[in-house]
Fold each of these.
Amino acid sequence: MPRLFRRAADQLAGAAPGWLVETVRPAPAPLRWGPMLRTAVAVTTPLILGVAAGQVVAGLLPAMGAMTASVSDRGGSYRARTILMGAAGLAGGLGYLAGALVHGHGWWTVLFLVVVSVVSALISTVGATGSMAGLQLLVMAVIGAGIEVPGSPGQNALMFVLGAGWAVALAVTGWLARPRAAEEASVIAVYRTLSLLFSSRDPDTLVAFDITLKNGYETVLGARSRAAGTDPERRRLVALLNQASLIRNALISLDHEGREPPREAAETVEDLTEAIAGGREPSEPRPCECDSPALRALCSAVREAVELVSGREVASDQLPYEPVGHAHRLRAMWGKMWYGHLTRVYTARLALCMGAAAAISELDLFERSYWTSLTVALVLKPDFGSVFARAVQRALGTFAGALIGTAVLLVVPYGPAILIPIAVFAALLPYGMQRNWGLMSTFQAPLVLLLVDLLTHGGPKLAEIRLLDTLIGCLIVLLLGYLPWSASWEAPVGPQFAEVLSAVAGYLRHAFDPWDGTRSTHLRKAYDALADLRTVFQRAVTEPPAISGRITTWLPALVSLEQLTDASAATAARTDHGMPPPSEEAVHAVVAALEDIAADIRAGRTPDKPELPEEEALERVNSALYRLRDTVSENRPG
């Protein structure tokens, strides 16, 4: 059973509540020194230059810009990282400029922050880059409107952007030596995980492979999508990812035949992985007996992967993506911004909470109450995970960080020595983000305290002020942005489940036509949708028990859906290598049944039992479909 499903089962059995351990990323990552050192250098360099010039304050905004860009780095190709970090830095600079211009304008500042929160919410819906840019736009608008920094707004905004550019430059220094290092690493990771499937096809390993493959496609296709002209090497990397998917499907087919994969194929894939990692030619694949459709599919896929690494030319129809123009991308972004119930609800929630926090700041009820607005902006971010979990973790992390920051301010005298703990906390930020929101807040709180102390000389009292403002911000989010909204208590597992069913139906429409060049595209869409469903489910089970208790009833249906998707891909793989394909009537019946179940789930109805033709080619697909319908009907997920 996949780890995230076991986690749900543990919660049902009375384990520690998941909302105390909710993570920002799907799984904790090991300590990585590269990002930590880069962040420390990026943040402290402007401060060191400011100290050397006798103008410490002049280094604050570049340091903040560097920190903004550094925490926006999510890995991937150099191009993707540059766009994401650059967008965050530019949006932050624009937000600071606008906020600084309305600083001190009374209730107009409150209205301004409400309008910026609406813009931020809409931008956040268009994807990862929009999400990060929207967040930094709002955060820096709050800072610009709440803190008076010496110098003109335009000059300060420019210094912020320059600091962000410095962080981007540090992050992409390896591009000159190895411009495709990230893409190659993602493909190597896919084949290392693929090697594990030869010894075990348990659900945990399959989920790990699917996630790694999805990340590989995103990294390689993201790097290639706007590359000028043709790029044979990236085409080869995409084709290798495609072959890895075919090998996986063939292994599932072998399981359906009740057979183990031949040792020769496993050894070839291991050698292939090392060849890609070492930049060498792979060894000749060892011959294996191909006495069944599944074995023929496996041996053929492995042999073609070896040929790709050996230098075989890649045809354009092997690339599993659909090229789209800039106009199409813009229309899609515009649609995401303005359509959808969840988008409208999130925008209203954020505007309401930001208005309340800004009003508190304008009334001067608390000292430095702009920290309250910052807390609202950071916590009320639904695409970062559970809002409830982040509110609790933000409060706990800030409490711990405030204690640490107080101790540092008491021990370390004001002056250049304060740069040492600043560098330490900046280095720990990437690690905290990889683990969970609370740990990130634990490192972020003392870092912010030390930066503000450089500007204001506020001393240890700053920690008390920061903690109080953060708690008020978390309270605003829970009382105004969480509890009153039904959408907060309804994780969209059902709609995403239906999306996966429709994606699998779309794949089956094309799966048995060997001349259809879009088959791999549809299969990737199906597994992408399945990966998104796992993410939605994982976030949902980290909510309080009142919500997660209902969501975990989807567990049996999710397992059945994984089995149905695997059975569909494996059946198509076998028909490509000798098994008679199913009739068009039988395929249409399965597709119609999937769409009917998806429609019933969207409407909240109990699906009827489908009537499917009995054909040997679709036996496993039909069996998985019946099982899925039964689990959806019996468990009646909420």
Amino acid sequence: MSLGEKELKLQKQMGISKLLAQLLLKRGISTPEAAAEFLNPNENSIYDPYLLHDMDKAVERIQAAVMDNQKITIYGDYDADGLTSTAVLYEALEQIGANVGYYIPDRFTDGYGPNMEVYKKLVDDGTELIVTVDNGVGGYDEVAYAQSHGVDVVITDHHELPDKLPEAVAIVHPRHPDKKYPWPNLAGVGVAFKVASALLEDIPQELLDLVAIGTVADLMPLLDENRALVKFGIMALRNTQRPGLLALLANAKINIDDINEETIGFALAPRLNSLGRIQNGSTGVELLTTLDEDKAKQIANKVESLNTERKELVATISKQAFKKLAEDETEHLVNVVAGKDWHEGVLGIVASHLVEETGKPSLVLSITDDGNIAKGSGRSVEAFQLFDAINGHRDLLTSFGGHHMACGLSLEESKIGELQAVLDNEAIKQQLDLTKKAQLEIEQTIEADEVSLDLIEELKRLAPFGVDNPKPIFSFTNYNVQSSLLMGQEKNHFKMSIRGKRAPIDVIAFSIGTHGQQLVDNAENIEFVGELATNVWKGQTKIQIMIKDFCLNAVEIPRIRINDLRSSKLTASLLRTDGEFFFFNSTVYSKLAGYFKRDAKIIVGLEKLPERGKVDNLVVVDCPPNLESFGTLLNRIEFEEITTILYPYKPVFLTGMPTKEEFGKVYRFAISHKNVDLKKDLNKLADYLKIKKDLLIFTLQVFFEVGFVKIDNGLMAGSSSRKRINLKDAPSYRARQRLLEAENVLLTSKTAEFEKTISQFITV
């Protein structure tokens, strides 16, 4: 059967649009039966729990513990998957009358996964059966200890299986080599839910809200059984009576009827994760299981506070990590960055930021107080198997665990350099190509007039969206741009209105950086792709297209290599790069002339640029006085490679512009004092006026230019004026403002945004 025939069959038998039929086929769903199961999962989409390895042994041992009133301890994990896994099994065991408690490891004292000291404590405290959730397969020694002391262990886990499995009573794992489950990609909470289903001899629908949270939070593929669990779980969330979840949603200002997979991923999961990242995750289980509304609100408020703290820590450490990477003069295929006493709980998020901005697998480590041990987290790219890269070098480490895309580890600080070398070598072995960027999968090209509320509602049938089932991205044709503008307090969001023959459609791009005006001015030449969405405002539902990527003028960006070496500190090695050096500022060059090789090619000043010169590698040493100068340089010199150091000789972006109050304070002092000796008393004056010295000097320069002060041989006197003078007309004011804009665009932007800036300058 041809592709067209399959499409037509799906369309007719399923009663769906041609577009939805095409999208199903692209997902490998080619029969009406498969389409029905995908679009309308039911109880049959959830597999028999006894298809999992050792499920019968696990149930038998747990039931025996319940019958004998043995003390059961659930050993969980501190992330959202681990907390929901613990809550699921805890509630199920309570339902069957178990004597059950739980233990959530402390990230900072216990570390990830099984911990020998904790196992010893559980044994000493009278635990008679340990049931692990979302961990356990890496605890060979811990399980052996418990078993040798008469305490059985049932493992339920979904993480990578080590070569040597623990000798537990049962190992319930969807990828166990002795009995592979039909759907191997269950989350930890999914495995716990299967155990709960077996114990309760039914599908416990009241637990599905927790299953949805853990599965989405752990970024599991949303296909097959996971798709059914999350779809049913979202329905359960919209009707949840859990006081803890209701309190979390209230604090996040989310309407319960609007809950979907994005709510979980961007609101619920980060809040639950913040507990284990900043303090201890055990209160998370209490939050999810308590029936006390006051207690739930109390914990939820604590979660909100910790989540805010998490964001601040991530921002601070990310900034420091990027700075350390910029200072490293060696080019690596894998980022390894370490800092003193960085908060361990957020290192995984920081590593994700590094991956996002640099396109490289990244490890972020915190060196402990005593300076001997570095602990941290790693995040990878799809093309690099991080677990395999490190697993063969466990001799370097004191602890390690993880999977393809993420890991946690610790090692002696002295071995960080060796780990860096190992990872770079493993990247070469795996033939990691950093020039290959992840590409957006464009589903279809559709006309603007094909977009409708009915189409958007139909596309929602493909939800829940997530890993392996992404939200459809479209390109669009046959429209005219009606209007365009910038939005937001910082004017960093772009909006335009497009129209075919029918109603106009809003097109939105968030966080576009500093080139928004360029998009506004050239909106009709933007080629973009995006997702379909709706926006409800004052009771009216409007269609929106959320831009995922775009290009201006549909011009191919020149294939140049950009070496981002931006630095606020110059070193001799930076000035020994092969290439032709350019300086905007002759003063900067005069201070550095002695550091160059004798045969170095150097150009100082735009006026010395040749007409349409050509070089292999253009090395831009210092920061330009304004963006126009930077654009002139890039368009007057033809180059295949550009190395940007952009040393800021006298930076202004850290202090900015004086406030209106500061201008007024200096003016009032100036007109009321005569013969102020600036050479002698400038520092005292800055302290007295409580204004930074460089801002004071700048302010006096502006006042001198507009005639507010007179300066003769270093002595200043005020000169009152009745004329209305705009300080912004002063040459110094305009120059600083333009320098400030240049520094904000060129020095403070992240690497990806900076590279886009250079490309846009070249194509303009």
Amino acid sequence: MKKSTGSLNRLYAYISPYKLHFFSAIFMTIIAIVLNGILPWVTGLPTTRIAQNVKNGESVDFTYIGKIIVILLLIGTAWSIASFLAQMFMTNVVQHSMRDLRQDLDKKINRLPVSYFDKNQFGDVLSRITNDVDAVSNAMQQSFIAIINAILGIVMAIVAMLMINIKLAMVVMVIIPLSIIISKIVVNISQRYFKKQQDSLGDLNGFVQENLTGFNVLKLYGREEQTISDFKEVNGNLAKNGFKAAALSGLMMPLVNLTAYSAYIGVAVLGSYYIIQGVLLLGNLQAFIQYVWQVSQPMGQITQLSSVIQSASAATKRVFEIMDEPEEILNEQDIPLPEKIEGNVTFENVSFSYDPQKPLIQNLNIEVKSGQTVAVVGPTGAGKTTLINLLMRFYDVTEGSIKIDGIDTKAMNRSDVRSLFGMVLQDAWLYNDSISENIRFGKLDATDYEVVDAAKTANVDHFIRTMPDGYNMAINEEGDNVSLGQKQLLTIARAVISDPKILILDEATSSVDTRLEGLIQKAMDRVMEGRTSFVIAHRLSTIRDADLILVMDQGQIIEQGNHETLIAKKGFYEKLYNSQFQEEAE
């Protein structure tokens, strides 16, 4: 309950900038409720007058009835206008507040550490930003005014009934506590299924996103049947939880209606008796029955909206779970970058582990001079990628320090640290825009001349000019309208245009043909010239000329030196190199 209340308070923080429209919506709602509360009493006046005319043997007073009809039309018109304005004001509040929430979510995501996305499915994160925010938006749009209408309408109807006849009003008022008790019991049972429903929806989105991304691989290995089977399981969980949530929530409406019908019967019997006794006027009984409807109908409306509200409650918690995630730790010192960066990198007694119970890197010491090329080699899981993650401050070291030109990176702003690096990863990433904009991503204010110059340096200019629309050709959303090798060349051009002081290359030549491998290698050599470079090497034949080769195994540097020195040692590197050389020869 505390979490739900907290989530509502946090939602109000997004509503408060638009409180003028918010309270205008509430004000117009109150006017509509008052007008709606007056209607039954005014509607009963003609009935009472006709009954009196008949009883006294008089002709029907059509003049009086005509005046009442005009009043009813005016009240009805005013009610319609007030209801429309209330909905219009509320729509404005909801749309703007949800826009602000999505903007805050976007900012939050950009402040989250890489570790968050290592632990959570992209599809689930996407579901929280889209489906869950939509669920909150729909609930506010559909439910907020309706709930205010219902609560104030019930209060108005009860006051009117008490003014007409207290005993009859007491019969009707039994509906309210019974309905509340029924609703509370059902909500307590069904709420956990609504939470499971939203979680299952996140799992489904994650599954679909992952499988669409790897659709070609699924087709290649004939995993269609297995994927369909897995989808049925995930989809079945969503259907099962959705059914339980909707079925349990759906019990409220018939149970609440049952109490309302009981009240109708009680009012009809007791009211008829009071008319016979002369205690109650016929028009007042007519009005009273309408007031019973004004109590039971909002109670039913609230129960109908309960599933929307519960779904939104679960969605709100999921949205604010992202907002509550710990962000990248800000630096206490935030030392600015020197005017001139040389590119010297030092690892001093660095220790790091993803899991405190499983140490990975311990007491690592490396010294890299400006302009040197450092190759990092070793078997899978040796810690090569972890080393790069620490350099980029995607993760912070547990102990020790990484220094650039003598400055501890933990004392620098993360953006400043990352601005020193250019990266060419094995998994090339392009986004849905023109080729020139994909290159310009490395330097957003780059001129067209700089874009072309970077493309020439990366050996990709000729390829671009052979494509339809040249530099203006659009890369599609999947990035599969260019080859893998061409993607790599474009990402190299992106790194060139950013003019980094330190370069990180996750060698990407292992999955391309020999001609493209040569082009990529030449491009990489040009980019690396005069820069401190870290190369994660998969093909050892490509790093023979590296100034320093670090051989890693289980998070430790077990050997280091240049190619000739390491071969002469006849250690781990020599065995690794010879085994790979034999495989290539075969």
Amino acid sequence: MKKNKTTHLMAGIYIIIFVAVFLVLTGRFMYIQATGEIDGVSLNEWADQKRTSSYSISAERGKIFDKNGMTLAYDRPTYRMYAILDEAYSEKSEEPLHVENPQKTAETLAPLLDVEVNEILEPLQNGMDSELFQVEFGKVGKELSQQKKDEISDLDIPGINFEEEAIRYYPNGMFASHIIGFARETEVETEEGYKNEIIGIAGMENEMNDLLSGKDGFISYQRDRYNNTLLDPSEVIQAPEDGDDVYLTIDQKIQTLLEDVLTQVDEEYEPSKMNAVVMDAKTGQVLAMSSRPSYDPNNPANVENWYNDIISNPFEPGSTVKMFTWAAAIEEGVYDGSEGFKSGSFQPNEQVKKIHDHNGGNGWGIISYDEGFQRSSNVAAAKLVWEKMGTETFLEYLQAFDFDEKTNIDLPGEVAGEILYNWPLEKITTSFGQGSTMTPIQQMKAATAIANDGQMMQPYVIDKIVDSSTGDIMEQKSPNVVGEPISKETSDQVLKLLESVVNGEHGTGKIYQLDDYSVGGKSGTAEIPNPEGGGYLNGRENYVFSFLGMAPIEDPELIMYVSVQQPKLKPTETGSVPLSFIFKNVVENGLHYLNIDPDKDEIETVEQITMPQVIGEKSTDVKEMLTEQDMKVSLIGNGEEIVSTSAIEGETVLPSDRIILVTDEPTMPNIIGWSLRDVMKLTDLMSFKIETFGNGYVITQSIEVDAPIKENDYLGIELSPPDESTNEDEENSEETEDTIDESSSETE
């Protein structure tokens, strides 16, 4: 009886516990069903999150163009390889979609990627051991070209897949590198975590990064565990906003011309530095700008100098400053060019060190101030400041020319020079370019006042900003007058003085004469401070040789500054030899290219050719006609009809320009020896996907000669400098025939 009571009691207790647990569980289930939440987490939202795949859609970075629409920087598609390892990924497929045999996969991929088998096998094996869904291959599997991706895809290797990703590409290689700069994929922190994004590192890529970058979009949809889209995927798409395009004032043809001659001088004279800039005298637009050392933004390794010296490296400029000293004296009304003075040396008082002319202080006896300018007399400059104007008046003109402030050119990293004006000697030496410092771009800005009727123009390199999706111009730059330090009458008189330096009987710049255009300018020979102690470096080559010139001198269209530091000169050469080679080639050809009429009498006219209508014409007849006009013609294919050409009807071309004619049956030409710019013409016409290696002229091509070609074909080329290539079309370097006697050398 006692046992029975105990049994009933325990049974009752268990029933109560069971009922309590049942009520709790049932209540919990009913609560979850009613609220759809567990611990404050919505089950619907959690399920949606688990079913939803979301992918970022990268915005395309804006392109950078030259002023005529030639592409200078753009996002080039490349491919990243990855491998699926999870067997479940192949469950619903008749063919395997994951890596089944890692050893065979590695042995197949390794020779295609030019790596050891272990470099492929190791990440595959480690991923399998760790039961990972997929693995990548690090640097080995990144930035694969379209051609390489196609080679691997054609093998149908199970589990090997690709994802497209962009890299920043610069089709011209080492071209205006300090202006364009470069951008690289960089890991950045966002609200969703870290992601890789192309970020501007230097130059315009950095300065305009926010405009160029754009805004990424995304796509999200619901899928099952096999990544198959559900019937009702709740798809959401946010389109990306591509970056804006930036058009520079740089002219690709003039810039290429400048790059070519700088490379030639760099190879022949091995200077420690070179700088050159070409500007439109009327507008302040920078048409070309380059420095050495430079770099290829596609592979910016071992860069010797990140800074754009033209805007960021102030130095003592030497005698190029004398044009502004004479301009100040003329504007102030104290200049009489026919007045005589005693050259050789000048000492204002016993407390001030003697000033000497550059011929050892011997001078040329009593000469006029006009002749003093031709001969680049330091004494003449000193006397104009000390005796004619007064030092404080001269300082006002230096400030009116903005030598004490930045030009505010639209490039990053500008540094202004400094006017040293504390002691009497500093006030005098500033008149002929010693002591005080300035940048080449400051001198160019000031020179626009002389070239442009007294109006000083703002230098700029950004022409316009364009919405890449609509083509609408968002911002358009225009010429900006930022000062009038001198009058038109003064500028006219200074132009005549500058012309006398190049053409006058006693001028120091005869070597800068052009064949077809009158030139004016002023040379400079700046001393280099000794980095290991006080004073300056010694030796005939230890100078910064420079020239600031303009042409045609009666009404200048182009202004050019060029400097060469510490060139290795031949015993018979002066620093003007490499300078003149650069200046003459760029300015002479640049003026012809811009269709500026020659202004010299009895000149041998450089033939310019207007491109006729050739589209639809018979290919053999067109080639024969253009060849008879001494044009360099490349016929693409053996078709009977011309369907496209690199020069449009009515365009003016020079005989040195390559004219590419595409027929209706295009085949690959032999491009060995072509320059990169000629290859880019062909690329634009055929819409090739191009990949370049090196700089200079083509030495190998991936498409065989006479092979049929079509749009979107891949073309890989390797280039080498002229002295390493087998370029049959390469023009011989022009040897200067000018000779310089002792009186035309200049050293201050």
